[in-house]
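[job 0412] stage=fold_complex status=start
inputs:
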Amino acid sequence: MEGAVPIEVRNLTMAYGEYVVQHDISFTVNRGEIFVIMGGNGCGKSTLMRSLIGLQRPAKGTVLYDGEDFWNVDETEHQRLKRRLGVMFQGGAMWSSLTLAENVALPLGEYTGLSSHLIDEIVSFKLALVGLAGFEDFYPAELSGGMRKRAGLARAMALDPDILIIDEPSSGLDPLTARHLDELILELRQNFGTTIVVISHELASILSICDDSVFLDAQTRTMIPTGNPKQALQSGDPRVRHFLTRGEA
Amino acid sequence: MPTDTDATAWRLTTSQPDPSTMEIAFSGRWCLDQQLPTPDDLASGLSGDISRLTFTTDLTAWDSAFLAYLSVMIKFCAGRGIEVEQEALPEGVRHLLAMAAAVPEQKIAGRGREHRGFLYRAGIASVEFFRGAPEMLRFLGEIIFSFGHLLTGRIHLRWRDLWWEVEEVGPRALLIVSVISFLVGLILAYLGADQLRMVGAQIFIADLVAIGMVREIGALMTGIIIAGRTGSAFAAKLGTMQVNEEIDAFKTLGISPIDFLVLPRIIALMLMVPLLTLYSGFVGMLAGLLISTTIFDIGLFEYYNETISALELKHFAVGLIKGSVYGAMVAYSGCLRGMQCGRSAEAVGEAATSAVVTSILLITISASILTILFYQLGI
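[job 0412] stage=fold_complex status=done
writing structure:
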Protein backbone atom coordinates (compact mmCIF):
# COMPACT_ATOMS: atom_id res chain seq x y z
CA MET A 1 0.00 0.00 0.00
CA GLU A 2 1.89 3.09 -1.28
CA GLY A 3 2.09 6.01 1.11
CA ALA A 4 1.31 3.97 4.22
CA VAL A 5 3.85 3.91 7.01
CA PRO A 6 5.97 0.79 6.76
CA ILE A 7 5.46 -0.22 10.40
CA GLU A 8 2.63 0.70 12.72
CA VAL A 9 2.27 -0.91 16.11
CA ARG A 10 -1.24 -0.36 17.41
CA ASN A 11 -2.26 -0.82 21.07
CA LEU A 12 -0.14 -3.91 21.47
CA THR A 13 -0.31 -5.92 24.67
CA MET A 14 2.07 -8.82 25.12
CA ALA A 15 1.51 -11.45 27.76
CA TYR A 16 2.53 -14.92 28.84
CA GLY A 17 -0.75 -16.39 30.04
CA GLU A 18 -2.01 -14.06 32.76
CA TYR A 19 1.31 -12.26 33.09
CA VAL A 20 1.30 -9.03 31.09
CA VAL A 21 4.80 -8.13 29.90
CA GLN A 22 3.91 -4.78 28.27
CA HIS A 23 0.59 -3.14 27.45
CA ASP A 24 -0.68 -0.37 25.18
CA ILE A 25 2.37 -0.19 22.97
CA SER A 26 1.76 2.12 19.99
CA PHE A 27 4.27 3.67 17.64
CA THR A 28 4.95 4.17 13.96
CA VAL A 29 8.19 3.78 12.07
CA ASN A 30 8.59 5.90 8.94
CA ARG A 31 10.22 4.73 5.74
CA GLY A 32 14.01 4.78 5.85
CA GLU A 33 14.04 5.46 9.57
CA ILE A 34 16.24 3.79 12.15
CA PHE A 35 13.96 3.16 15.10
CA VAL A 36 15.32 1.89 18.40
CA ILE A 37 13.36 -0.03 21.02
CA MET A 38 15.28 0.37 24.24
CA GLY A 39 14.83 -0.62 27.83
CA GLY A 40 16.46 -2.48 30.68
CA ASN A 41 16.84 -6.21 31.04
CA GLY A 42 13.58 -8.13 31.22
CA CYS A 43 11.38 -5.22 30.15
CA GLY A 44 9.93 -7.09 27.17
CA LYS A 45 12.07 -5.89 24.26
CA SER A 46 12.61 -9.35 22.83
CA THR A 47 8.94 -10.26 23.37
CA LEU A 48 7.96 -7.18 21.38
CA MET A 49 10.38 -8.24 18.67
CA ARG A 50 8.77 -11.69 18.56
CA SER A 51 5.40 -10.04 17.98
CA LEU A 52 6.89 -7.85 15.24
CA ILE A 53 8.34 -10.80 13.34
CA GLY A 54 5.42 -13.19 13.67
CA LEU A 55 6.69 -15.57 16.33
CA GLN A 56 4.31 -14.59 19.11
CA ARG A 57 0.73 -13.47 18.67
CA PRO A 58 0.04 -10.42 20.83
CA ALA A 59 -2.60 -10.71 23.55
CA LYS A 60 -4.22 -7.53 22.22
CA GLY A 61 -3.59 -5.05 19.42
CA THR A 62 -1.74 -5.68 16.21
CA VAL A 63 1.13 -4.74 13.92
CA LEU A 64 0.59 -3.23 10.47
CA TYR A 65 3.16 -3.39 7.68
CA ASP A 66 2.39 -0.85 4.94
CA GLY A 67 -1.17 -0.72 6.28
CA GLU A 68 -1.69 -4.49 6.19
CA ASP A 69 -2.67 -6.11 9.46
CA PHE A 70 0.13 -8.60 10.04
CA TRP A 71 -1.79 -10.67 12.61
CA ASN A 72 -5.17 -10.69 10.90
CA VAL A 73 -4.42 -11.48 7.25
CA ASP A 74 -4.71 -14.94 5.73
CA GLU A 75 -1.75 -17.30 5.98
CA THR A 76 -0.49 -16.64 2.42
CA GLU A 77 -0.42 -12.92 2.97
CA HIS A 78 1.11 -13.40 6.42
CA GLN A 79 3.94 -15.38 4.82
CA ARG A 80 4.39 -12.76 2.08
CA LEU A 81 4.69 -10.02 4.69
CA LYS A 82 7.20 -12.12 6.63
CA ARG A 83 9.41 -12.37 3.55
CA ARG A 84 9.69 -8.57 3.51
CA LEU A 85 11.37 -8.70 6.90
CA GLY A 86 15.01 -9.43 7.50
CA VAL A 87 15.62 -10.52 11.06
CA MET A 88 18.86 -10.73 12.95
CA PHE A 89 18.52 -12.64 16.20
CA GLN A 90 20.55 -11.78 19.26
CA GLY A 91 22.89 -14.77 19.02
CA GLY A 92 22.88 -14.95 15.23
CA ALA A 93 20.64 -18.07 15.15
CA MET A 94 22.76 -19.53 12.37
CA TRP A 95 21.76 -23.02 11.22
CA SER A 96 24.47 -25.16 12.69
CA SER A 97 24.46 -27.86 10.02
CA LEU A 98 25.14 -25.33 7.25
CA THR A 99 28.26 -23.30 6.52
CA LEU A 100 28.07 -19.51 6.68
CA ALA A 101 27.83 -19.37 2.89
CA GLU A 102 25.00 -21.92 2.86
CA ASN A 103 23.20 -20.02 5.62
CA VAL A 104 23.22 -16.78 3.64
CA ALA A 105 22.57 -18.49 0.30
CA LEU A 106 19.49 -20.38 1.48
CA PRO A 107 16.98 -17.48 1.23
CA LEU A 108 18.54 -16.35 -2.07
CA GLY A 109 18.16 -19.83 -3.53
CA GLU A 110 14.57 -20.12 -2.25
CA TYR A 111 13.24 -16.74 -3.32
CA THR A 112 15.27 -15.52 -6.32
CA GLY A 113 15.96 -16.93 -9.75
CA LEU A 114 19.62 -15.93 -9.74
CA SER A 115 22.32 -18.25 -11.01
CA SER A 116 24.23 -20.18 -8.36
CA HIS A 117 27.40 -18.34 -9.34
CA LEU A 118 25.83 -14.93 -8.75
CA ILE A 119 24.30 -16.20 -5.48
CA ASP A 120 27.79 -17.26 -4.37
CA GLU A 121 29.07 -13.79 -5.19
CA ILE A 122 26.23 -12.08 -3.33
CA VAL A 123 26.93 -14.32 -0.34
CA SER A 124 30.64 -13.44 -0.41
CA PHE A 125 29.76 -9.77 -0.73
CA LYS A 126 27.33 -9.85 2.20
CA LEU A 127 29.85 -11.65 4.37
CA ALA A 128 32.51 -9.13 3.35
CA LEU A 129 30.16 -6.29 4.33
CA VAL A 130 30.00 -7.64 7.87
CA GLY A 131 33.76 -8.26 7.96
CA LEU A 132 33.64 -12.02 7.40
CA ALA A 133 35.28 -12.31 3.98
CA GLY A 134 36.98 -15.68 3.68
CA PHE A 135 34.79 -17.42 6.28
CA GLU A 136 32.33 -18.82 3.74
CA ASP A 137 33.16 -22.46 4.48
CA PHE A 138 33.12 -22.19 8.26
CA TYR A 139 30.37 -23.71 10.35
CA PRO A 140 28.78 -21.50 13.00
CA ALA A 141 30.21 -23.65 15.80
CA GLU A 142 33.72 -22.74 14.59
CA LEU A 143 33.15 -19.02 15.07
CA SER A 144 33.08 -16.71 18.06
CA GLY A 145 29.80 -15.31 19.35
CA GLY A 146 30.49 -11.91 17.76
CA MET A 147 31.25 -13.49 14.40
CA ARG A 148 28.06 -15.55 14.54
CA LYS A 149 26.13 -12.38 15.29
CA ARG A 150 27.65 -10.63 12.26
CA ALA A 151 26.95 -13.65 10.09
CA GLY A 152 23.35 -13.45 11.32
CA LEU A 153 23.19 -9.89 10.03
CA ALA A 154 24.57 -11.01 6.65
CA ARG A 155 21.78 -13.60 6.44
CA ALA A 156 19.17 -11.06 7.48
CA MET A 157 20.36 -8.78 4.66
CA ALA A 158 20.46 -11.57 2.08
CA LEU A 159 17.30 -10.54 0.25
CA ASP A 160 17.80 -6.79 0.70
CA PRO A 161 14.61 -6.62 2.79
CA ASP A 162 12.50 -3.46 3.02
CA ILE A 163 12.47 -3.80 6.78
CA LEU A 164 15.35 -5.01 8.88
CA ILE A 165 14.75 -5.98 12.51
CA ILE A 166 17.89 -6.37 14.53
CA ASP A 167 18.09 -7.67 18.09
CA GLU A 168 21.03 -6.32 20.12
CA PRO A 169 23.46 -5.78 17.22
CA SER A 170 26.32 -4.41 19.29
CA SER A 171 26.20 -6.38 22.51
CA GLY A 172 29.17 -8.66 22.89
CA LEU A 173 31.14 -7.00 20.10
CA ASP A 174 34.40 -5.13 20.46
CA PRO A 175 34.08 -1.33 20.03
CA LEU A 176 35.57 -1.25 16.53
CA THR A 177 33.37 -4.06 15.23
CA ALA A 178 30.34 -2.48 16.91
CA ARG A 179 31.13 0.81 15.17
CA HIS A 180 31.58 -0.99 11.83
CA LEU A 181 28.14 -2.55 12.28
CA ASP A 182 26.61 0.83 13.15
CA GLU A 183 28.14 2.29 9.97
CA LEU A 184 26.79 -0.61 7.98
CA ILE A 185 23.29 -0.04 9.37
CA LEU A 186 23.52 3.64 8.38
CA GLU A 187 24.75 2.72 4.88
CA LEU A 188 21.90 0.24 4.42
CA ARG A 189 19.38 2.90 5.32
CA GLN A 190 21.04 5.51 3.10
CA ASN A 191 21.55 3.35 0.02
CA PHE A 192 18.63 0.95 0.07
CA GLY A 193 16.15 3.08 2.00
CA THR A 194 15.79 0.18 4.41
CA THR A 195 13.55 0.77 7.40
CA ILE A 196 15.43 -0.55 10.41
CA VAL A 197 14.17 -1.46 13.85
CA VAL A 198 16.91 -2.05 16.39
CA ILE A 199 16.34 -3.58 19.81
CA SER A 200 19.19 -2.39 21.96
CA HIS A 201 20.44 -1.16 25.29
CA GLU A 202 23.91 -0.24 24.04
CA LEU A 203 24.03 3.50 24.59
CA ALA A 204 26.88 4.31 22.20
CA SER A 205 25.16 2.49 19.40
CA ILE A 206 21.75 4.02 20.17
CA LEU A 207 23.14 7.54 20.16
CA SER A 208 25.05 7.08 16.90
CA ILE A 209 22.37 5.51 14.71
CA CYS A 210 18.93 6.27 16.11
CA ASP A 211 16.37 8.62 14.52
CA ASP A 212 13.41 7.82 16.75
CA SER A 213 12.83 5.51 19.68
CA VAL A 214 10.61 4.20 22.43
CA PHE A 215 11.60 3.15 25.92
CA LEU A 216 9.93 0.10 27.46
CA ASP A 217 9.56 0.71 31.16
CA ALA A 218 9.73 -2.44 33.29
CA GLN A 219 8.05 -0.72 36.28
CA THR A 220 4.86 0.49 34.61
CA ARG A 221 5.02 -2.23 31.92
CA THR A 222 4.32 0.20 29.15
CA MET A 223 6.23 2.39 26.72
CA ILE A 224 7.48 5.94 26.98
CA PRO A 225 7.80 7.72 23.59
CA THR A 226 11.37 8.94 23.51
CA GLY A 227 11.98 10.52 20.11
CA ASN A 228 15.60 11.11 19.26
CA PRO A 229 17.68 9.83 22.20
CA LYS A 230 20.12 12.77 21.91
CA GLN A 231 17.22 15.15 22.64
CA ALA A 232 15.82 12.78 25.24
CA LEU A 233 19.14 13.04 27.06
CA GLN A 234 18.58 16.79 27.43
CA SER A 235 14.87 17.13 27.97
CA GLY A 236 13.22 13.71 27.95
CA ASP A 237 11.26 11.79 30.54
CA PRO A 238 13.28 11.46 33.79
CA ARG A 239 13.11 7.63 33.64
CA VAL A 240 14.57 7.67 30.13
CA ARG A 241 17.28 10.15 31.11
CA HIS A 242 18.08 7.96 34.12
CA PHE A 243 18.55 5.02 31.74
CA LEU A 244 20.53 6.92 29.11
CA THR A 245 22.90 8.44 31.67
CA ARG A 246 23.42 5.07 33.37
CA GLY A 247 21.67 6.23 36.52
CA GLU A 248 23.56 9.51 36.89
CA ALA A 249 20.63 11.80 36.06
CA MET B 1 26.56 -7.87 -24.95
CA PRO B 2 23.07 -8.83 -23.73
CA THR B 3 20.48 -6.12 -23.88
CA ASP B 4 16.83 -6.06 -23.00
CA THR B 5 14.30 -3.80 -24.64
CA ASP B 6 12.06 -3.70 -21.55
CA ALA B 7 12.59 -0.35 -19.81
CA THR B 8 12.47 -1.96 -16.36
CA ALA B 9 15.03 -4.63 -17.24
CA TRP B 10 18.79 -4.55 -16.90
CA ARG B 11 20.92 -3.38 -19.79
CA LEU B 12 24.62 -3.70 -20.26
CA THR B 13 26.86 -2.50 -23.10
CA THR B 14 30.61 -2.49 -23.48
CA SER B 15 32.87 -0.31 -25.60
CA GLN B 16 36.57 0.41 -26.04
CA PRO B 17 37.24 4.17 -26.21
CA ASP B 18 40.91 3.32 -26.71
CA PRO B 19 42.79 0.01 -27.08
CA SER B 20 43.79 -0.11 -23.40
CA THR B 21 40.41 0.88 -21.89
CA MET B 22 37.13 -0.95 -21.61
CA GLU B 23 34.01 0.96 -20.66
CA ILE B 24 30.97 -0.83 -19.26
CA ALA B 25 27.64 0.96 -19.35
CA PHE B 26 25.04 -0.27 -16.84
CA SER B 27 21.48 0.93 -17.16
CA GLY B 28 17.97 -0.09 -16.18
CA ARG B 29 17.19 -2.20 -13.16
CA TRP B 30 19.83 -4.42 -11.51
CA CYS B 31 18.00 -6.19 -8.71
CA LEU B 32 17.73 -9.60 -7.03
CA ASP B 33 14.31 -10.30 -8.51
CA GLN B 34 15.66 -10.40 -12.08
CA GLN B 35 17.48 -12.96 -14.18
CA LEU B 36 20.82 -11.17 -14.28
CA PRO B 37 23.74 -12.23 -16.49
CA THR B 38 26.68 -14.04 -14.94
CA PRO B 39 29.75 -11.81 -14.67
CA ASP B 40 32.08 -14.51 -16.04
CA ASP B 41 31.35 -13.80 -19.73
CA LEU B 42 32.19 -10.16 -19.31
CA ALA B 43 35.24 -10.85 -17.19
CA SER B 44 36.65 -13.23 -19.79
CA GLY B 45 36.46 -10.40 -22.32
CA LEU B 46 38.86 -8.37 -20.19
CA SER B 47 42.02 -9.78 -21.70
CA GLY B 48 44.70 -8.76 -24.10
CA ASP B 49 45.74 -5.12 -23.98
CA ILE B 50 43.06 -3.91 -21.58
CA SER B 51 44.69 -2.20 -18.60
CA ARG B 52 41.87 0.08 -17.46
CA LEU B 53 38.19 -0.47 -16.74
CA THR B 54 35.69 2.36 -16.48
CA PHE B 55 31.94 2.47 -15.92
CA THR B 56 29.00 4.61 -16.86
CA THR B 57 25.62 4.17 -15.18
CA ASP B 58 22.03 5.11 -15.87
CA LEU B 59 20.32 2.91 -13.30
CA THR B 60 16.66 3.01 -12.35
CA ALA B 61 17.22 0.68 -9.38
CA TRP B 62 19.99 -1.44 -7.93
CA ASP B 63 20.60 -3.68 -4.94
CA SER B 64 22.97 -6.41 -3.77
CA ALA B 65 22.81 -8.18 -7.12
CA PHE B 66 24.47 -5.18 -8.78
CA LEU B 67 27.04 -4.94 -5.99
CA ALA B 68 27.89 -8.62 -6.30
CA TYR B 69 28.25 -8.25 -10.07
CA LEU B 70 30.63 -5.32 -9.67
CA SER B 71 32.49 -7.10 -6.90
CA VAL B 72 33.29 -10.00 -9.24
CA MET B 73 34.54 -7.59 -11.91
CA ILE B 74 36.73 -5.70 -9.45
CA LYS B 75 38.21 -8.91 -8.00
CA PHE B 76 38.91 -10.21 -11.51
CA CYS B 77 40.63 -6.96 -12.49
CA ALA B 78 42.70 -6.94 -9.30
CA GLY B 79 43.96 -10.41 -10.21
CA ARG B 80 44.95 -9.26 -13.71
CA GLY B 81 46.46 -5.93 -12.71
CA ILE B 82 43.70 -3.99 -14.47
CA GLU B 83 43.02 -0.55 -13.02
CA VAL B 84 39.33 0.02 -12.11
CA GLU B 85 37.89 3.54 -12.03
CA GLN B 86 34.81 3.62 -9.82
CA GLU B 87 34.12 7.37 -9.89
CA ALA B 88 31.17 7.04 -12.25
CA LEU B 89 29.40 4.54 -9.99
CA PRO B 90 26.63 5.84 -7.68
CA GLU B 91 27.99 7.09 -4.37
CA GLY B 92 26.16 4.44 -2.33
CA VAL B 93 27.61 1.68 -4.49
CA ARG B 94 31.11 3.02 -3.95
CA HIS B 95 30.56 3.25 -0.18
CA LEU B 96 29.28 -0.29 0.12
CA LEU B 97 32.05 -1.69 -2.10
CA ALA B 98 34.57 0.13 0.09
CA MET B 99 32.96 -1.29 3.24
CA ALA B 100 33.12 -4.80 1.86
CA ALA B 101 36.78 -4.32 1.01
CA ALA B 102 37.62 -2.68 4.35
CA VAL B 103 38.25 -5.98 6.14
CA PRO B 104 40.70 -8.07 4.12
CA GLU B 105 39.65 -11.57 3.17
CA GLN B 106 40.94 -14.24 5.55
CA LYS B 107 42.96 -16.94 3.83
CA ILE B 108 42.66 -20.01 6.00
CA ALA B 109 44.80 -22.96 4.99
CA GLY B 110 43.01 -26.26 4.54
CA ARG B 111 39.57 -24.70 4.17
CA GLY B 112 37.73 -25.23 0.95
CA ARG B 113 35.00 -27.05 -0.83
CA GLU B 114 37.27 -29.78 -2.11
CA HIS B 115 35.56 -33.19 -2.16
CA ARG B 116 37.70 -36.17 -1.21
CA GLY B 117 37.33 -39.72 -2.47
CA PHE B 118 35.83 -42.66 -0.60
CA LEU B 119 39.19 -44.20 0.33
CA TYR B 120 40.45 -40.90 1.73
CA ARG B 121 37.33 -40.45 3.84
CA ALA B 122 37.42 -44.10 4.99
CA GLY B 123 41.07 -43.65 5.98
CA ILE B 124 40.33 -40.49 7.92
CA ALA B 125 37.39 -42.19 9.67
CA SER B 126 39.64 -45.14 10.67
CA VAL B 127 42.35 -42.83 12.02
CA GLU B 128 39.72 -40.86 13.95
CA PHE B 129 38.33 -44.09 15.40
CA PHE B 130 41.71 -45.22 16.71
CA ARG B 131 42.47 -41.73 17.94
CA GLY B 132 39.23 -41.91 19.91
CA ALA B 133 40.25 -45.15 21.70
CA PRO B 134 42.65 -43.49 24.21
CA GLU B 135 39.97 -40.94 25.03
CA MET B 136 37.47 -43.72 25.71
CA LEU B 137 39.99 -45.38 28.03
CA ARG B 138 40.74 -42.08 29.76
CA PHE B 139 37.04 -41.52 30.36
CA LEU B 140 36.72 -45.05 31.74
CA GLY B 141 39.68 -44.37 34.03
CA GLU B 142 38.07 -41.16 35.29
CA ILE B 143 34.87 -43.04 36.10
CA ILE B 144 36.80 -45.74 37.98
CA PHE B 145 38.65 -43.02 39.94
CA SER B 146 35.37 -41.35 40.69
CA PHE B 147 33.92 -44.64 41.97
CA GLY B 148 37.04 -45.01 44.10
CA HIS B 149 36.52 -41.54 45.56
CA LEU B 150 32.89 -42.39 46.29
CA LEU B 151 33.77 -45.64 48.05
CA THR B 152 36.50 -43.98 50.14
CA GLY B 153 34.19 -41.13 51.11
CA ARG B 154 36.18 -38.41 49.32
CA ILE B 155 33.11 -37.35 47.40
CA HIS B 156 29.47 -37.48 48.35
CA LEU B 157 26.81 -38.66 45.99
CA ARG B 158 23.93 -36.25 45.55
CA TRP B 159 21.07 -38.57 46.47
CA ARG B 160 18.46 -36.27 45.01
CA ASP B 161 20.13 -36.49 41.57
CA LEU B 162 20.51 -40.25 41.88
CA TRP B 163 16.85 -40.81 42.74
CA TRP B 164 15.77 -38.52 39.94
CA GLU B 165 17.86 -40.57 37.49
CA VAL B 166 16.59 -43.85 38.99
CA GLU B 167 13.00 -42.76 38.44
CA GLU B 168 13.77 -41.53 34.95
CA VAL B 169 15.52 -44.69 33.75
CA GLY B 170 13.50 -47.26 35.70
CA PRO B 171 9.76 -46.79 36.29
CA ARG B 172 9.34 -44.57 33.24
CA ALA B 173 10.80 -47.28 31.00
CA LEU B 174 8.40 -49.97 32.26
CA LEU B 175 5.81 -49.53 29.53
CA ILE B 176 8.17 -49.89 26.58
CA VAL B 177 10.03 -52.77 28.28
CA SER B 178 6.67 -54.51 28.89
CA VAL B 179 5.53 -54.21 25.28
CA ILE B 180 8.81 -55.33 23.73
CA SER B 181 9.35 -58.18 26.23
CA PHE B 182 5.83 -59.49 25.77
CA LEU B 183 6.24 -59.55 22.00
CA VAL B 184 9.67 -61.19 22.21
CA GLY B 185 8.30 -63.84 24.62
CA LEU B 186 5.47 -64.45 22.20
CA ILE B 187 7.85 -64.85 19.23
CA LEU B 188 10.09 -67.19 21.24
CA ALA B 189 7.10 -69.37 22.23
CA TYR B 190 5.89 -69.64 18.63
CA LEU B 191 9.38 -70.35 17.33
CA GLY B 192 9.94 -73.07 19.94
CA ALA B 193 6.52 -74.61 19.51
CA ASP B 194 7.01 -74.98 15.79
CA GLN B 195 10.12 -77.11 16.28
CA LEU B 196 9.17 -78.94 19.48
CA ARG B 197 5.78 -80.00 18.15
CA MET B 198 7.55 -82.19 15.56
CA VAL B 199 8.99 -84.40 18.33
CA GLY B 200 5.95 -84.10 20.61
CA ALA B 201 7.80 -82.06 23.20
CA GLN B 202 5.68 -78.92 23.26
CA ILE B 203 5.89 -78.76 27.04
CA PHE B 204 9.51 -77.70 26.68
CA ILE B 205 8.30 -74.35 25.33
CA ALA B 206 8.21 -73.39 29.01
CA ASP B 207 11.90 -74.25 29.46
CA LEU B 208 12.89 -72.43 26.28
CA VAL B 209 10.99 -69.26 27.12
CA ALA B 210 11.94 -69.21 30.81
CA ILE B 211 15.66 -69.84 30.41
CA GLY B 212 15.87 -67.75 27.22
CA MET B 213 14.15 -64.73 28.70
CA VAL B 214 15.69 -64.81 32.18
CA ARG B 215 19.23 -65.65 31.15
CA GLU B 216 19.79 -63.94 27.78
CA ILE B 217 17.03 -62.23 25.90
CA GLY B 218 15.54 -60.22 28.75
CA ALA B 219 18.87 -58.59 29.46
CA LEU B 220 19.68 -58.09 25.78
CA MET B 221 16.33 -56.55 24.89
CA THR B 222 16.35 -54.34 27.97
CA GLY B 223 19.89 -53.20 27.15
CA ILE B 224 18.91 -52.28 23.59
CA ILE B 225 15.72 -50.51 24.71
CA ILE B 226 17.63 -48.54 27.34
CA ALA B 227 20.35 -47.70 24.79
CA GLY B 228 17.76 -46.12 22.51
CA ARG B 229 15.72 -44.50 25.25
CA THR B 230 18.15 -43.50 27.97
CA GLY B 231 21.64 -43.62 26.40
CA SER B 232 20.64 -41.13 23.72
CA ALA B 233 18.93 -38.93 26.33
CA PHE B 234 22.12 -38.88 28.44
CA ALA B 235 24.17 -37.86 25.41
CA ALA B 236 21.70 -35.18 24.35
CA LYS B 237 21.43 -33.72 27.85
CA LEU B 238 25.16 -33.65 28.52
CA GLY B 239 25.76 -32.43 24.95
CA THR B 240 23.38 -29.53 25.46
CA MET B 241 25.20 -28.74 28.70
CA GLN B 242 28.43 -28.62 26.68
CA VAL B 243 26.83 -26.22 24.20
CA ASN B 244 25.68 -23.97 27.07
CA GLU B 245 29.14 -24.11 28.70
CA GLU B 246 27.58 -25.62 31.85
CA ILE B 247 30.25 -28.34 31.95
CA ASP B 248 32.99 -25.71 31.60
CA ALA B 249 31.42 -23.93 34.56
CA PHE B 250 31.79 -27.11 36.67
CA LYS B 251 35.44 -27.41 35.65
CA THR B 252 36.30 -23.79 36.43
CA LEU B 253 34.78 -24.21 39.90
CA GLY B 254 36.99 -27.24 40.43
CA ILE B 255 33.99 -29.60 40.52
CA SER B 256 34.48 -32.79 38.56
CA PRO B 257 31.67 -33.18 36.03
CA ILE B 258 32.30 -36.93 36.25
CA ASP B 259 31.44 -36.94 39.97
CA PHE B 260 28.50 -34.64 39.56
CA LEU B 261 26.95 -35.69 36.27
CA VAL B 262 28.28 -39.06 35.15
CA LEU B 263 28.43 -41.07 38.37
CA PRO B 264 24.73 -40.75 39.31
CA ARG B 265 23.73 -41.80 35.81
CA ILE B 266 25.99 -44.85 35.79
CA ILE B 267 24.85 -45.96 39.25
CA ALA B 268 21.20 -45.42 38.32
CA LEU B 269 21.48 -47.58 35.21
CA MET B 270 23.54 -50.27 36.95
CA LEU B 271 20.79 -50.50 39.58
CA MET B 272 17.77 -50.27 37.34
CA VAL B 273 18.72 -52.30 34.26
CA PRO B 274 19.06 -55.58 36.26
CA LEU B 275 15.63 -54.95 37.78
CA LEU B 276 14.19 -54.18 34.36
CA THR B 277 15.85 -57.39 33.12
CA LEU B 278 14.04 -59.44 35.78
CA TYR B 279 10.81 -57.69 34.91
CA SER B 280 11.40 -58.30 31.18
CA GLY B 281 11.95 -62.02 31.87
CA PHE B 282 8.73 -62.18 33.87
CA VAL B 283 6.70 -60.48 31.12
CA GLY B 284 8.28 -62.73 28.48
CA MET B 285 7.30 -65.82 30.48
CA LEU B 286 3.76 -64.49 30.80
CA ALA B 287 3.59 -64.19 27.01
CA GLY B 288 4.88 -67.77 26.67
CA LEU B 289 2.26 -68.95 29.16
CA LEU B 290 -0.51 -67.17 27.29
CA ILE B 291 0.47 -68.62 23.93
CA SER B 292 1.08 -72.14 25.28
CA THR B 293 -2.24 -72.39 27.11
CA THR B 294 -4.42 -70.78 24.44
CA ILE B 295 -2.81 -72.00 21.19
CA PHE B 296 -0.87 -75.17 22.01
CA ASP B 297 -3.18 -76.76 24.61
CA ILE B 298 -0.68 -76.91 27.46
CA GLY B 299 -2.22 -76.77 30.92
CA LEU B 300 -1.65 -73.72 33.13
CA PHE B 301 -0.15 -75.71 36.05
CA GLU B 302 1.74 -77.97 33.68
CA TYR B 303 3.44 -74.91 32.16
CA TYR B 304 4.03 -73.38 35.59
CA ASN B 305 5.63 -76.54 37.01
CA GLU B 306 7.83 -76.96 33.95
CA THR B 307 8.99 -73.35 34.26
CA ILE B 308 9.80 -73.74 37.95
CA SER B 309 11.76 -76.91 37.34
CA ALA B 310 13.68 -75.37 34.43
CA LEU B 311 14.79 -72.23 36.21
CA GLU B 312 17.75 -72.32 38.54
CA LEU B 313 19.27 -69.58 40.61
CA LYS B 314 22.27 -69.39 38.28
CA HIS B 315 19.99 -68.33 35.40
CA PHE B 316 18.80 -65.36 37.43
CA ALA B 317 22.38 -64.57 38.44
CA VAL B 318 23.53 -64.63 34.82
CA GLY B 319 20.61 -62.40 33.76
CA LEU B 320 21.28 -59.94 36.58
CA ILE B 321 25.01 -59.75 35.88
CA LYS B 322 24.39 -59.24 32.18
CA GLY B 323 21.76 -56.59 32.87
CA SER B 324 24.12 -54.75 35.17
CA VAL B 325 26.96 -54.85 32.63
CA TYR B 326 24.70 -53.71 29.79
CA GLY B 327 23.38 -50.89 31.96
CA ALA B 328 26.93 -49.78 32.69
CA MET B 329 27.78 -49.95 28.96
CA VAL B 330 24.78 -47.81 28.04
CA ALA B 331 25.50 -45.25 30.75
CA TYR B 332 29.19 -45.16 29.80
CA SER B 333 28.43 -44.67 26.09
CA GLY B 334 25.76 -42.02 26.66
CA CYS B 335 27.90 -40.03 29.07
CA LEU B 336 31.06 -40.40 26.95
CA ARG B 337 29.41 -39.12 23.79
CA GLY B 338 27.66 -36.33 25.69
CA MET B 339 30.91 -35.16 27.27
CA GLN B 340 32.68 -35.34 23.88
CA CYS B 341 29.93 -33.32 22.20
CA GLY B 342 30.82 -30.24 20.14
CA ARG B 343 29.21 -26.85 20.57
CA SER B 344 26.34 -26.88 18.12
CA ALA B 345 22.86 -28.32 17.69
CA GLU B 346 24.28 -30.57 14.97
CA ALA B 347 26.86 -31.93 17.39
CA VAL B 348 24.16 -32.77 19.96
CA GLY B 349 22.33 -34.85 17.36
CA GLU B 350 25.55 -36.61 16.41
CA ALA B 351 26.33 -37.30 20.08
CA ALA B 352 22.91 -38.90 20.61
CA THR B 353 23.27 -41.08 17.50
CA SER B 354 26.80 -42.04 18.39
CA ALA B 355 25.74 -42.93 21.95
CA VAL B 356 23.18 -45.45 20.66
CA VAL B 357 25.62 -46.98 18.16
CA THR B 358 28.38 -47.23 20.77
CA SER B 359 25.97 -48.69 23.34
CA ILE B 360 24.74 -51.41 21.01
CA LEU B 361 28.29 -52.22 19.91
CA LEU B 362 29.50 -52.50 23.51
CA ILE B 363 26.43 -54.54 24.54
CA THR B 364 27.07 -56.98 21.70
CA ILE B 365 30.77 -57.30 22.53
CA SER B 366 30.14 -57.75 26.25
CA ALA B 367 27.31 -60.23 25.58
CA SER B 368 29.70 -62.38 23.55
CA ILE B 369 32.43 -62.21 26.18
CA LEU B 370 30.04 -63.01 29.04
CA THR B 371 28.43 -65.91 27.18
CA ILE B 372 31.84 -67.51 26.54
CA LEU B 373 32.92 -66.81 30.12
CA PHE B 374 29.81 -68.34 31.72
CA TYR B 375 30.07 -71.35 29.41
CA GLN B 376 33.67 -71.93 30.42
CA LEU B 377 32.75 -71.56 34.10
CA GLY B 378 29.90 -74.02 33.65
CA ILE B 379 27.29 -71.55 34.86
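[job 0412] summary: The interface with chain B takes residues 96-97, 108, 112-115, 117-118, 121-122, 124-126, 128-129, 131-135, 137-141, 157-160, 180, 183-184, 187, 190-192 of chain A (CB under 8 Å).
[job 0412] exit 0
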